[in-house]
Please model this.
Amino acid sequence: MDLAAPYLTDRADETAAGQAVSLITGLIDAVDRLYGHWYLPALALTVCWGAGELVVRRLAARASAERMALELVSNRHFDPGLEEIFRRGVQLARASTAMSWWAPRRAKTVQIRLRADGSTPLRYRIEGPAGGERLLSITPFGPDITVNRGRPIVDKPREHVVRAEFILRGKLISPLREVPLSPDPLQPLVDAVSDLRAELGDLAEIRLDIQRAPKWSLRARRLQLMSAARRSERREAQRATRWLRQDASGIEDSWAGQLQQLLSDRPGPATGRRLVMPPVPRRVDPAEALGKLAEDDHLVRVQLLVMCASNTEGRAQARLAQLQAAFDVFGGRSRWAMRGWKLGPWRIGADHWPTRRGFERRWDLGHCQPPRANWVRLEELTGLLKPPTVHCRLPVLAGDLPSFAFGDPELLLQGIYRGPDGRRRLVATYAQETLFEVGVGKAGGGKTERALAQAIGWAHAGGGLVFVDPHRDSWPRATTFLAHDHLMPRIALVDLNGLGANPRVSSWNPLGMHHGQAAHEIVEAIADAYASALAWDDATAPRALTILTAALTVLVAVNEAACQAGQPHDQATIFHIRALLTDASFRKAALAAVAGRLDEETRAWWKVVFPALPPDAFAVVLNPIARLSANPVTRAFLGQPVGAYNIRTAMDSRMIVWVCPGGNGPTDRLLTALLARDLLRAARSRRDTPEEKRVPFRPYFDELITLTGAAPETIAAMFEDLRKYRCHVHGMTQLLSRLPTPVRLSLVQNASTLATTAGSMSAIAPITAEWGDNPSPDRVATMERFEHFVSMNVRGHRIGPIQLRGPHLDGVFAAQARPQNVPALERAAQANAQALPLDQLTDRAAGQLGRVAAFLAAHAPASAAVHLPKDNEWT
Model:
């Protein structure tokens, strides 16, 4: 047994060695067979990879079907800080993983879409997993951001489409340039799409996908970077050693080195070589070697895709070039560059095989498969993590501010807008939204020209208006463009300037009842006009107001009786107040004729209080009437029993009325006050018409300083009340500070459109203050003539202030100029206003007192009131 044990051990060792040799031989044979049939394992690997990729794509497509979309809309005060933007980035990174466990990584992404298609300057949209909607709906930006649920976007096919994918070029560890928040980092992108034209099918869209960095990939990248850094340090050390040895050898072999050895006092052989110590490789600093990849926190992978389209050849390519230049703003040691190869004039990229199909799949499904170099920290994406801020200058597109179309009754001309591409277009606001308008600026700056252009465009569109101009300069300027046959029947001129030897003057009886007005409204309107022009109130002139009101009540009752009797030409006028107060026989006849029309309190006042009044109590009432009577033009205009002027009929029949009061003296102010109060009364009288049947009417007041000096409370009430009756006031003035406080406050508070031309800084400051001093007063003060800064309301949103060129009539309405028809227009305007020679009207006014007295003597007191039908004619 002892002798057999070694023998058995040797046999076992021989068997094991044989088995090992057989195994190695089998492996060699297997490798040889695989090498001979290499396509079989390659095919197996390809099939496995293809099957796995198909499964991943299906799962990713299924996960992408459960995505949500949010649209973020910022207001003009949106001004976030860096911390708020950073917190938003953290939210986006966290929301990218709010998906089911089985979802592939390419589907775990949040996408920021910046889109411009002509409807908005830059549409900001976020798309991501449905599970992240609650997280993303509440932003750290506060109330200056509105978050809306996004609807699906369906684009019409464009004829020309270009695509591009941007990757980070430069040092992988280097960050992008730190772009300040002011001006807005989005400004270059906004500028790149500012000249986009929706009518040409232009479209530009940027999609930024944000994905949390996978840990394993980050560790692998760090190991690679550290290894590369160490190799680089070793190479540097070796290179330094070689150069050091070469330098030492060169010094010892030189004549200077040999001479130094000969002169040396040290004994020993002179042939020995100097010992050279090689430098030790420098220790690699991880923070320096890894750069922005050193820390895990807030590190993400990004994918940047861009698509531009147009129906016009060349515009999409030009747009992509503009966007590429815009991304250069973010470039530093690392920069955004288009992925692909450039061969001479050709570029092979996302638009070509083999990458186009993958681009379209990622674009359509929202998958994120970024290049290996696209690692960024959230701080580098600051400019793209928020909508445009207050520091972003947004262009005004056709979708924001409509273009003016001549003859369109829904549009109101505002001016000429010069777009970022240099194109000019006439812009307008919607008439139903332009309730009140204010224009401020120095004399000759173009505010009246702009108002005239607007009024002429409104007239040609079928709208009604009254243009009140104390200086009459606007009428000859407008006639050339209003002298059209279809407009002449609607135009009336009320000119009180008295030009010429025997001018033609229209007529108006403020006390007239032949148009069916309410008696108490007439009395109230005239009394309020007196009080406004003469600064009367219940504290300073109670007796004068009482006397005037009582006299107006009697005369209106007389006119009511005359109209009911079918004798409107026997009506009293405002000048008969003097006879009523000072002529006992006339007063007795008037009171007897209308006794049944007066209430008991009024009759008692005339019976008890009036006889006790001293004679000098009437002077304060009669003095203004005497001044009106002394002017032959106002005497003729106000002294007719049946006046042609009826502003209520003008409103309802879309007439175009030009009223030129003729000056700004005390007499003119009283007449202006009467006209203004009558306009307010007429507008309020539209209560008897259903709101939907009220015809829009636009009063234009040139020289508000002159008009409000006569009727400040009346003008203020117009800016407060007339919107309800579809009567929209437009006012022009040189100085807001010269306007009475009630007018100024009402005017600025309710203005739908606020405009200013150049002027002194003190005059412009109240307007720019309404805009938050953006633009500043000094910028507005240095504008050229006919330039305006205007803020407008369009679709419920404020547009501007933007700079517009004031429309010049000779340029904007050159095609409507009819200078040869101006004489015919003048005749038609005077005929529509029933203007007669001044001497004829003067004679009629002088004999009116006798006709009224004869009517009073011939008629007994009326027993009952009779309803008066409304006269629907201008006359």
Q: What stands out?
A: The chain is about 40% helix and 15% strand.
